[in-house]
Amino acid sequence: MTYIRPKFRHPDLPKNDLGYTTKEYEGSLSTLCAGCGHDSISASIIEACFELSIPPHRIAKLSGIGCSSKTPTYFLGNSHGFNSVHGRMPSVATGANMANRELTYIGVSGDGDTASIGMGQFVHVIRRNLNMVYIVMNNGCYGLTKGQDSATADEGSKSKAGSVNPFQPIDLAGLALELGASFVAQSFSGDKQQLIPLIKAAISHQGFAFINVISPCVTFNNNPGSTKSYDYVREHIESTGKTDLVPEKTEILTSYESGTGTNVMMHDGTYIRLEKLASNRNPFDRMGAMNALQNARNRSEILTGLLFVEKETENLHQTINSSDRPLNTLMQEELCPGSSVLADINDELR
Amino acid sequence: MPNSKVNNFVIRFANVNGTGSASANYLFAKAIFRMGVPVTPKNIFPSNIQGLPTWYDVRVSEKGYLGRREGVDIMVCVNPQSMPDDVRSVRSGGYFIYDSTKALHPELIRNDVTYIGMPLMEMCLREFTDPRQRQLFKNIIYVGALAALLDIEFEVLEQLLAEQFEGKEKLIGLNIKALKLGVQYINDNFSFPLEIRLERRDLVGDKILVDGNSACGLGAVYGGATVVAWYPITPSTSVVEGFETYAKKLRIDPETGKKNFAIVQAEDELAAIGMVIGANWNGARSFTATSGPGLSLMNEFLGLAYFAEIPTVLIDVQRTGPSTGMPTRTQQSDILLAAYASHGDTKQVLIFPSTPKECFEMTAESFDLAELLQTPIILMTDLDLGMNDHMSEPFVWDDNKQYNRGKVLDAQQLEELPRFGRYLDVDGDGITYRTIPGTHPTKGSFFTRGTSRDEYAAYTEDGSVYARNMERLLKKWDTAKNIVPAPVLYQSENKSPYGLIFFGTSTYSAEEAMDDMEASGIVFDAMRLKSFPFNKTVEDFIHSHEMVFIIEQNRDAQMRSLLINELNVNPQKMISVLNFDGMPITAQFITSQINKTLSPAIN
C-alpha cells in the first residue's frame, strides 16, 4: 500500500456552508487492511461532519487502543485527536468535555476496547449522559493482535482458524439501552446510506449518543461460519426504517406515507426524520427497542437503524450545573479568590 | 526555672469510634490553641465507622514542637475495650481518667498512676433523656472536667461552642451544661488543678490550625483548578471535599448561579486520572487526589501523560501499604512508585509539602509546574499531614502573581508560525509548544498519542526518532531541576561531618531531634527535600558530609534508594532512619536510631 495520498481533488467538489469540501475533513491515509469495515465508518464520519458543516477544529476525536482506535488518524485531520490507553477513552472524553462543553466530541472504540477492558468506563459514561458520540466499530475479534475472539463474538461463531466461540456475546446496543443511554443506534459499515444520517443525528443529540456499527474484519473474521462477516451481516440485517437528519432551515416535506414516519426535533433545531418505520416501532420507547433488539437476535437477525432517542435529555454539564461558558476559558480573575478572601479564611482557622 | 509540667504533656483520649468523640476532642485541642499554647492533635482511628477503638492524642509543647511524642501523661479512657492497653500506656507518674460508672477491675490498678474516676455514663443518664445526647455529652463532660483539672479557661470553651453552633442556641446551652457538669464534678470530688496543666501564653501568633487536605483543596481553588475527578479513598477523600466546600463558596458565577468548576466522582481511579488528563489536554486546570492503591491503578495513565506530555496534577495522600495495608495509618511509602510511575522509561516530578501552608501553596504551584513542564506533578503528602490538624503558618497569596500557563500557542501565534511542531524543541530546554483543541481552524491541530511520533506529532516507529524524543524528555527533566521547589538548607555553611535529610511530615520530629541531640553535644547539618528531581544542592550536601542520615517513614528506605539511583553518591555513607509502624515518626525514635550508629564512633 502506498503512503502517498494524491493532493489533487476534483475542482468541482461540493462545498458545505463553511465553504469547505470533504478534503478539509479527511485525515491521513489509512493503514488498515484493504476492505476493512472501519475505513467505511471513517468515511461516513467525514461525510457526516462535512454535511453538518462543523468546523473541523471544533471537533475533538478520541479513541482507546486497537484497530478501531487507530482510525481517528484517518479522518478529520484538522481536528485535535487523542489516542489514549486501552478501554479508557470515555474518561479522557469526560475530562475533555468538562473542560470545554462547546466542542463536538467523537469517541471511537472497538469491541475489544469497549466490551472488555473498557466496559466499566463505557457503562459509566452512559450513566452520566456525557454529551458525545460513541461509535463502536464492532468486528467480534481482536484484529491488532491477530484475530482472537472478543466479548461481542456470537456464541457459535467460527473463527478463521476454525474454533467455535463457546461464550455468550455482550450486546452493546442492548446494554446501552438497559443503562439508560439517551440515543442508541446500530448500523453496518457496509451501509453508508444508513450510517451517515445516524452519525449526523448522533452529533446533533445533546447527550450520550451510542452507535454500534458492525464492521467486519476482512483479515481475521470474514470467513464462513463467522457471524460478523460481510456475507453473514448482509444476509441477516434488518432495518428499523430509514433515518435522515434534516437541517433546521430545511422545510420539512412529508415524503413518506402518512402514519409511517416521525420527525424528532433535536436541541439544535434540526430534525431526525424517521421514515418507513417498521410497524409498532416507536423511537421514543426504550422498552420497545429492547424487545425489538432481543427479538431480532432470537431470529439471528441484526436490527439496525435508530433504536431509541430521548427527546428531552439532561447531559452531565446540566446535571452538575456547571458554567455555560467553557471552563477552559475562565481567567484567573474568575478563578482565584485573592488575598483578602484568604485573610478571612485564615481568621476562620484561628 | 519554668515548671516542665506546665504546657508540656501528652494527653490521649481513648474512645469508641462513631460516638462523636472527635469533635469534643477537637474542642479540647482548639481551646489550648486559643490559649496561645502550641498544640498538636493526632487522630488515631480504625478503618471502621462505628464500634472500634479510636484514640486522639494531643501534644502540648511550650517549645513549639509539633511532632508526635511517645508516652502518655494523661489518659482519658472512655472505652472499656481498650482499657487494659490504655492503662499500660500511661507514663509513670501520669493520670488515668476514666468512666467510673462501672468499677475498675483490680488488675487495672497501677500504683504509679493517679486515677480520676467520673461516673460519665451515670451522669449522662441522669441529666439527658435523648439517647444520642447521652452518648455525645459524655464526651463534653470530660472536656469540662479537663478544663478544671488542667486550668483551661472556661470562657475560651464557651466561645468555641458559640462559634461552632452559631444560630443554634439550644445546642450551645446543652453543651455548656455538659461542660459545667464536668467542672462541677471535679470541684466536688478532686483537688485541682493537676501538676500537669496549662497556662496562657502568646506562642501561637498568627498561626492557623488546619488539616493538610483542606489546605490542598483550597490551594487547588487558588491555583485555578476547574475540573476535578476523583474516586473516594482514605486518606485522600477530604482533599476533594475541601475543594468542593471552598469552591461552592468562592466559585459560583454571580450572575447565573452556575458553578465555575466541575467535579466528577469517577467509577475508579483509572477513570479519575483519565478525566484529569482529558481536561488538562483540553486546556483546563484539573487534578485528582488519591492514595497508594489508587496511585498503582493510575500508573498506566501516568506513563501516557509523561510520554504525551500532558499537564496533570495528582495529590497522593500516602497511607500504610502495601495493598490495603493499614488504610488509616500514615507512611511515606509511595515514593518509588510515584517517582518512576509507569512502564517504560518514566520519571515523574514529585513535590513534598510538610505543613498545611505548604499543602496550600504547593498545590497551587503544582498547576503552574504541570503546565510549565507539561508533565504530571505528584504532590506527595500523607495521612498524618492530610487528615490531622496542624498548627501552621497562615496561608499566603500574592495578588500580583499571575498563573503561568506555560508554552501554549494562541490563534494569532499559530497564524504567524510557518509550521507548528508539537514536539519540536524550539527553545532548547526540552519543553515544546502545545495548542489547546479548537484554537485555530487549520493550524495547531495534532494527534496526541502514547505511541512514538516525530517532532510534528506524526506517528513513527523509527527508532532514531523515538530515541531523540526520549533524549529530549531527559533534557526537559534537567530543566525541571531548576524549576521545582529547591531544598531547604538549615545552615548557611556546614558545621558538622553529619548531615540529616528529611522531608514531609518527618520534618517536625527531625527538627526536634536535632535540638535534642545538640543539647547532648552532637551537632548536625540538615536539609529538607521539597521535590524530585533533585538539584545540585542535594548532591553537594551529600558530598560535603561524611555521613548522611536519611529519615523517612517506610521500610525500604525509598528516598535513600532514589537519591542513590539519581545522584552520583556513595551509598555506604547514606544511613537510614526508618519508621514504618503506621504512627507518625517521633524525635525520640530518630535520636535513638542515630545514636545506634554514632555511639560506637563517639565512644
From TrEMBL, chain A:
<dbReference type="GO" id="GO:0045333">
    <property type="term" value="P:cellular respiration"/>
</dbReference>
<dbReference type="GO" id="GO:0030976">
    <property type="term" value="F:thiamine pyrophosphate binding"/>
</dbReference>
<dbReference type="InterPro" id="IPR029061">
    <property type="entry name" value="THDP-binding"/>
</dbReference>
<dbReference type="GO" id="GO:0016625">
    <property type="term" value="F:oxidoreductase activity, acting on the aldehyde or oxo group of donors, iron-sulfur protein as acceptor"/>
</dbReference>
<dbReference type="Pfam" id="PF02775">
    <property type="entry name" value="TPP_enzyme_C"/>
</dbReference>
<keyword id="KW-0560">Oxidoreductase</keyword>
<protein>
    <submittedName>
        <fullName>2-oxoglutarate ferredoxin oxidoreductase subunit beta</fullName>
    </submittedName>
</protein>
<dbReference type="InterPro" id="IPR051457">
    <property type="entry name" value="2-oxoacid:Fd_oxidoreductase"/>
</dbReference>
<dbReference type="InterPro" id="IPR011766">
    <property type="entry name" value="TPP_enzyme_TPP-bd"/>
</dbReference>
<dbReference type="GO" id="GO:0044281">
    <property type="term" value="P:small molecule metabolic process"/>
</dbReference>
<feature type="domain" description="Thiamine pyrophosphate enzyme TPP-binding">
    <location>
        <begin position="65"/>
        <end position="213"/>
    </location>
</feature>
UniProtKB/TrEMBL annotation, chain B:
<feature type="domain" description="Pyruvate/ketoisovalerate oxidoreductase catalytic">
    <location>
        <begin position="18"/>
        <end position="184"/>
    </location>
</feature>
<dbReference type="InterPro" id="IPR029061">
    <property type="entry name" value="THDP-binding"/>
</dbReference>
<dbReference type="InterPro" id="IPR009014">
    <property type="entry name" value="Transketo_C/PFOR_II"/>
</dbReference>
<dbReference type="Pfam" id="PF01558">
    <property type="entry name" value="POR"/>
</dbReference>
<dbReference type="InterPro" id="IPR022367">
    <property type="entry name" value="2-oxoacid/accept_OxRdtase_asu"/>
</dbReference>
<dbReference type="GO" id="GO:0016903">
    <property type="term" value="F:oxidoreductase activity, acting on the aldehyde or oxo group of donors"/>
</dbReference>
<dbReference type="InterPro" id="IPR002869">
    <property type="entry name" value="Pyrv_flavodox_OxRed_cen"/>
</dbReference>
<feature type="domain" description="Pyruvate flavodoxin/ferredoxin oxidoreductase pyrimidine binding">
    <location>
        <begin position="219"/>
        <end position="384"/>
    </location>
</feature>
<dbReference type="GO" id="GO:0006979">
    <property type="term" value="P:response to oxidative stress"/>
</dbReference>
<dbReference type="Pfam" id="PF01855">
    <property type="entry name" value="POR_N"/>
</dbReference>
<keyword id="KW-0560">Oxidoreductase</keyword>
<protein>
    <submittedName>
        <fullName>2-oxoglutarate ferredoxin oxidoreductase subunit alpha</fullName>
    </submittedName>
</protein>
<dbReference type="InterPro" id="IPR050722">
    <property type="entry name" value="Pyruvate:ferred/Flavod_OxRd"/>
</dbReference>
<dbReference type="InterPro" id="IPR002880">
    <property type="entry name" value="Pyrv_Fd/Flavodoxin_OxRdtase_N"/>
</dbReference>
<dbReference type="InterPro" id="IPR019752">
    <property type="entry name" value="Pyrv/ketoisovalerate_OxRed_cat"/>
</dbReference>
